Each structure stands twice: as C-alpha cells, then as structure tokens.
Amino acid sequence: PIYLDYNATTPVDKRVLEKILPYFTEHFGNAASRSHLYGWTAQDAVENARQQIADLIGAEAKEIVFTSGATEANNLAIKGLYELFSTSKNHIITVETEHKAILDVCKHLEKLGCETTYLKPDSAGLISLEQIENAIRPETFLISVMYANNEIGTIQPIREIGALAHKNDILFHTDATQVLGKVAIDVDADNIDLLSLSGHKLYAPKGIGALYIRKKSKASQLIAQIDGGRHERGYRSGTLNVTGIVGLGEACEIAKNELLAENQRLSILRDKLEQGILQNIADVQVNGNIENRLPNLTNISFGGVDGENLLMSFRDIAVSSGSACTSATVEPSYVLKAIGLDDNLAYATIRFSLGKFTTEEEIDFTIKYVKEVVESLR
Ligand code: PMP
C-alpha cells in the first residue's frame, strides 16, 4: 500500500543509515569508556550528534539529554519538575488534546498530589492566551503545550505562550515531536525551557529521542527519573544508544538543510490531496487549523459512512484514524471529540500524512481511490 502515515513513523533515511552502520561494528565502543580509543570514538560521535540536534533548535549542545524517545522525554520533563517543585508548587497547566505521553503522566502525578488544569481547545484545536492566563495560580510551576498536534496538525502560539509563562515565573515545556524538520524552531525566540523530540518521526530510528533542558533556568535542576551510572550528567543514566544517537544527529542535520524546500513540496502535495478530496467527494470536512498547521498533514472527516468500515476498507493506502498510539482501543479520537466532533464523525475521520518519499503519482492515485472507497460505502 501507499504509505501516507508519516506522522505515525517514518522510514530511516538511507544517508542516516549509512552514517549509523559503522557504530554497530567497528566503532562499537561504550561512550562512557574513558580509557581507550573505542570509547573515545563513540563519545566523539555522541557529542557530534548532540551538536547537530542543538543546531536544529537553536540550543547549546550541553542542553540536550538523550532519552529513548519522546514518551520518556515527556516523563522526564514533567515528573522531574514535579519532584523538584513538590514542596512548594504543585499545579500544571496543559491541554485536552496533548499526546497520552503528557496526559497520562499528569494523571499519574495527580495520584501523588499534583493538580492539573486541562484547557479545552476551540474547534480549530487552538488554545488562547486568555485561557492560560485564567488558569494560572500561585502554585503553577509548569505550562506544557504541544507545538503541533499529531492528529490534526494545529500549531499553537508557542512563542506567546512561552512569554506568558515567563512573565508569571512559570516554566514552559513543549512536546515538539511532530514539528522537528517540519517547522523552524528556535528555543530562545520561542521562549521554550524544555522541549521533547523523537527520532522516528524524523527519518532516524525508533527508540531514540531527546529532551532539551534550558541551562539558564530552574528547569536545569529537574530531578532524574532513571538513576544509575550518572550518564548524561546525571539527568538520565544508562549506557548511551550510540547508533540511535548518531542517527538522530544526522537526521537533524539533514532536516536543517532540507527543511524549507521539502516542506514547500509537501504542502503543495498535501493541498492537492485535500482539494482533490474536497472537490470530488460530497459531505467531507477538513479538521484542524487550516491557517496554521503542519505542512504535511490533512485530517478529513467523511459524513455518512461507518467509521470502522472506512479505515478497514483502505487496503491500498496506509493511513490512520487519528493517533496510532491509542489505536489498541476502538474509542473515537479524544482529540477530535475535544474539538467538537460527534462520535460518528470522529470514527469516520482519516489522517493523511505525507513525507519525504511521497510522490505526485501517489497523491493522484489516492484521490481517486478514496473517492471510490467512500462512495462504495455510502
Ligand atoms: N508526542 C507526540 C506528539 C507524538 O506524536 C508521539 C508519537 N506518537 C510521542 C509523543 C511519543 O513519541 P515516542 O514514540 O518517541 O515515544
């Protein structure tokens, strides 16, 4: 089938793979081995990758901490800060449409005494500064708002949210997993204290990610959640995943060089797909913030069809009905419900996400194919 699920995961870029391979075999050293060339070679590769990642987001290399992915980065950020602040402040502000790797962390902390405000977005998936301002309490230590939503692509006013957080002496975390390589990020200009990212959404391997932690902020005192040999300056113990790290670094460098051209190409293809569906199929709607969303994604609801049949009928294209991470359950997407879709329409919604290897021929085929399938189900 034609792969149109790049927001679930991406294939590894061949250039990334080539860069990684020697670190499985000849350069297999432990980056923590300080007494021989094997260790130094691995450590050099890790530090080079750390700089490549920092360069993509305008950070310093020493502000990057490697994790197993964005889920772990989110856990480290939120639990680490909760533990740091727990005797003084205990309130977090976040959003109903965050990834489960934020929401379930907050739920867990609530059992320990944390209080969370979940802001409700508008029908485009946006939250307002006013909503945040109204939710701020003297006990608020963290605002966590995702940069862009994984299901509907809506990009939040990150820079303004960060400024509001700082005005109130609150730390600002953003889950930018879906944004790296798609939108230019600058942690200074965007007022970000902590940022989560993941390799496998960016043409690097699965099982590697990072947390950016601002050096000159209270965030840098967060409490580690995995203890051991004090790797990563004590923030995250465990022998480093050198191959994953090298891959993530290379993927970030490629993204930095190719971001603008590639995203222009993708948004043209995405618009072609979206217009093709809107113009050729009756009773469809596009979800999310059309004015400001991820360039590679469109989220479309099809009226008058049974949702479960819809997804199962798309044999020739690989797409998803919202978040793959919650697809073990047959609940309608909580993101779509939060922006006001009813259960039926939420079930009958498809996320099409394009990527580096998507071609115009694939988009032409998909438009015709979706029309056929939807009309046969009606
Ligand atoms: N946050 C967002 C917004 C995501 O889309 C994902 C991946 N579905 C994650 C976090 C989890 O990332 P990882 O797979 O690296 O744990």
TrEMBL record:
Which keywords appear in this protein's UniProt record, sorted alphabetically?
Answer: 2Fe-2S, Iron, Iron-sulfur, Metal-binding, Pyridoxal phosphate, Transferase
Q: What class of enzyme is it?
A: transferase
Aminotransferase class V domain ranges (all copies): 2-364
One GO MF term on file is: 2 iron, 2 sulfur cluster binding
- InterPro entries named among the record's database cross-references: Aminotrans_V_dom (IPR000192), Aminotrans_V_PyrdxlP_BS (IPR020578), Cysteine_dSase (IPR016454), PyrdxlP-dep_Trfase (IPR015424), PyrdxlP-dep_Trfase_major (IPR015421), PyrdxlP-dep_Trfase_small (IPR015422)
Cofactor(s) needed for function: pyridoxal 5'-phosphate
What is catalysed by this protein? (sulfur carrier)-H + L-cysteine = (sulfur carrier)-SH + L-alanine
Pfam families, per this entry?
Answer: Aminotran_5
Q: What is its EC number?
A: 2.8.1.7
UniProt lists the family membership as follows: Belongs to the class-V pyridoxal-phosphate-dependent aminotransferase family. NifS/IscS subfamily.
User: What PANTHER family does UniProt report for this protein, alphabetically?
Assistant: CYSTEINE DESULFURASE (PTHR11601:SF34), CYSTEINE DESULFURYLASE FAMILY MEMBER (PTHR11601)
List the protein's name.
cysteine desulfurase
Q: Which organism is it from?
A: Arcicella aurantiaca
Taxonomic path = Bacteria, Pseudomonadati, Bacteroidota, Cytophagia, Cytophagales
